[in-house]
Design goal:
This protein is α+β, with helices and mostly antiparallel strands. It has helices spanning 2-7, 9-39, 121-132, 189-201; strands at residues 43-48, 56-61, 67-77, 82-86, 108-110, 115-120, 143-151, 158-170, 173-178, 184-186.
């Protein structure tokens, strides 16, 4: 046995070194994937606390780090029309009705696990109507797509998350239901660039 080990010691040494390299590569892959997963910005959009057009739109930061909500974008669709605009500020609230001006905007930092109520669907449609100068109301909207545009803690680039809600008529009236449970994280560079351009081109009101 000893003579066998002596004879093939260099081969065994190469095999052990190769095994160690594979183990270190596996560890490096694990830590890299884990780091990238924690570094990703993940935002969830949902409805709750009420029904129909009075449903509250909730935005939750599921990231491991704080994120800054830069804008809320709404795309409204009806049978023959579609429009998109920013609805970040709560234009349905008059400045003289609040003591804190910041309570009239949805801009701000969300800590990990924190949820922000950005208003009811009725509020969001009302804001869109003000910005678009178009005759929209929750009764004629067939579909609402909400997109949260944010900035990561590193402030290196914007990110976006989007969810679509479709109107359905039921026994209790008109309700909005999400097409999918999960919120779509928009990681495509072209998509993020398009929202970045929209924020630059569309002045705040």
């Amino acid at each position: 046995m000893i003579s066998f080990l002596s004879e093939y010691a260099h081969i065994l040494n190469v095999m052990l070194n190769a095994a160690m390299v594979l183990i270190w590569v596996a560890y490096l892959h694990f830590f890299t994937v884990n780091h990238l997963r924690q570094a990703r910005n993940v935002v969830h959009i949902d409805l709750g606390a009420a029904e129909g057009a009075h449903s509250r739109c909730l935005v939750t930061n599921l990231s491991a780090k704080p994120v800054y909500v830069q804008a809320i974008v709404a795309e409204l669709s009806s049978e023959d029309h579609r429009s998109m605009t920013q609805i970040t500020d709560k234009d349905e609230i008059r400045p003289e009705d609040v003591e804190d001006p910041l309570s009239r905007t949805n801009r701000g930092t969300l800590q990990p696990g924190q949820t922000m109520d950005i208003g009811s669907l009725e509020n969001l449609v009302s804001r869109a109507r003000i910005h678009l100068s178009e005759d929209w109301n929750s009764d004629v909207v067939d579909e609402v797509t909400l997109t949260v545009v944010g900035i990561s803690g590193q402030a290196e680039r914007i990110f976006a998350a989007s969810k679509t809600f479709k109107a359905r008529n039921n026994a209790n009236g008109r309700a909005f239901v999400a097409q999918k449970v999960l919120t779509k994280q928009l990681r495509n560079r072209e998509t993020r660039a398009a929202f970045s351009k929209m924020l630059r081109d569309q002045p705040y009101k």
